[in-house]
UniProtKB/TrEMBL annotation:
Also exhibits azoreductase activity. Catalyzes the reductive cleavage of the azo bond in aromatic azo compounds to the corresponding amines. Keywords: Flavoprotein, FMN, NAD, Oxidoreductase. Homodimer. This is FMN dependent NADH:quinone oxidoreductase. Its cofactor is FMN. GO terms for molecular function: electron transfer activity; FMN binding; oxidoreductase activity, acting on NAD(P)H as acceptor; oxidoreductase activity, acting on NAD(P)H, quinone or similar compound as acceptor. Its EC number is 1.6.5.-, 1.7.1.17. FMN binds at residues 10, 16-18, 95-98. It catalyses: 2 a quinone + NADH + H(+) = 2 a 1,4-benzosemiquinone + NAD(+); N,N-dimethyl-1,4-phenylenediamine + anthranilate + 2 NAD(+) = 2-(4-dimethylaminophenyl)diazenylbenzoate + 2 NADH + 2 H(+). Binds 1 FMN per subunit. It comes from Halioxenophilus aromaticivorans. Belongs to the azoreductase type 1 family.
Length: 201
């Protein structure tokens, strides 16, 4: 059985296109093999902006942490453990104001930890998480793929590669706020169909 972690970041719940497309990918995967799904809904997790206090908790040895520090460190530790336990990861990512949701940024701020998920060397940074298949399902109201206005894709490639994930696949559903919505969804469904055959292969 494969463990698949789904990280959603939309504010729209059941009405979210990025989440619904990611669930469609999960359905396709489950048709070919048995999978166990772990859901991390960042709208429900409600991570606050990262603070110096929380970063200080990470830097404090576990045996020296106060109860507050232990509680703060446990949040990051839990998110990182979810990544480590997964055989594959799916990120459902809507576009908000040309970027990723702030909830997803808060998530990455907690899973990118020096000495835990990456380290710096004389040759540059090195990701410490074991590489595994990662799918990113992006939903956009307009058309951004391959343009300078698409700040999501390079950021996500850099961020995920920074912690060790380089087996990346992207699904793009674009034009969702235009008359081309149906065409955009159809193209995304085709990408999902193709990806479902290779993601856990």
């Amino acid at each position: 059985m494969k463990n698949v972690l789904l990280v959603t970041s939309s504010l729209l719940g059941d009405n979210s296109t990025s989440t619904n497309l990611s669930n469609a990918l999960l359905d396709k995967l489950s048709q070919s093999q048995e999978i166990k799904i772990q859901l991390r809904d960042l709208a429900e997790t409600n991570l606050p902006h990262l603070t110096q206090v929380e970063m200080g908790a990470w830097a404090t040895p576990a045996e020296e942490r106060s109860q507050e520090q232990a509680n703060l460190a446990a949040v990051s530790d839990g998110l990182i453990d979810e990544l480590k336990q997964a055989d594959a990861i799916i990120f459902a990512v809507p576009m908000y104001n040309f970027g990723i949701p702030s909830s997803l940024k808060a998530y990455f701020d907690r899973v990118a930890r020096a000495g835990v998920t990456f380290k710096y060397t004389e040759q540059g940074s090195v990701g410490l998480l074991e590489s595994k298949p990662v799918a990113v399902v992006c939903a956009r109201g307009g058309f951004y793929q391959g343009t300078d206005a698409d700040s999501q894709t390079p950021y996500l490639k850099s961020m995920l590669g920074f912690i060790g994930y380089n087996q990346l696949s992207f699904v793009f559903a674009e034009g969702l706020a235009t008359p081309e919505r149906d065409n955009g969804l159809a193209k995304a469904q085709e990408q999902i169909e193709n990806l479902s055959k290779t993601l856990l292969a």
